[in-house]
Amino acid sequence: ELEKQKGGYLVTYADLPADKLKAPTVDQVLDSGKKALEDDFKLKNVKSEPTEVTTKTAKHKARKISGDRDELNLRGTIVLVGNRLYQVYVYGPKDFVDGKEAQDFLASFAITE
After folding, report:
1. What is the pLDDT of residues 30-50, one digit of tens each?
2. Number of H helices, E strands in the chain
3. Which of 105, 50, 43, 106 is nearest to 80 (CA)?
């Protein structure tokens, strides 16, 4: 996290239990990730755009997500690879989230195999 009121970066992942992945499609899992952001962070104006993240051997469905709440802005990507849900975000004031450094950070995300 950067200085107070400046914003920050976040990269995280969660391994989803196999039983949670039996019925849902990849799209449903990604949509539930978007919904969790809306609920947990009380985000408004949430947008979700389908995209893909490519590894050496495959393309994986992903979502570019953005939203805001008061002075908090969030932008990032979620992607499901097997049972692992990766999440990469920048958050903070709008000028920080839309800035070159934040764009470069999000663009640098790669899944290695």
Report:
1. 888 888 888 888 888 889 999
2. 4, 5
3. 50
Of the candidates 47, 52, 48, 107, which has an alpha carbon nearest to the alpha carbon of residue 79?
Answer: 52
At position 43, the amino acid (one-letter code) is L
> For residue 2, is pLDDT > 60?
no
The one-letter amino acid code at 55 reads T
Alpha carbons 23 and 21: distance in angstroms, whole number = 6
Closest by alpha carbon to 55, among 79, 31, 85, 77? Answer: 79
Return the H-helix or E-strand segment holding 87: strand 84-92
Secondary structure class of 98 (helix, strand, coil):
coil
Tokens 């050496």: give the residue: 56
Residue whose pair of structure tokens reads 């985000």 in the numeric block:
43
Write down the pLDDT at residue 113. 67
CB 108 within 8 A of CB 77: no
Q: If you write DSSP's letter for every residue of 65-88 in order, what string do you get?
A: EEEEETTEEEEEEEEEETTEEEEE
Strand ranges (DSSP E) for 24-58? 44-54
> What DSSP character marks residue 22?
S
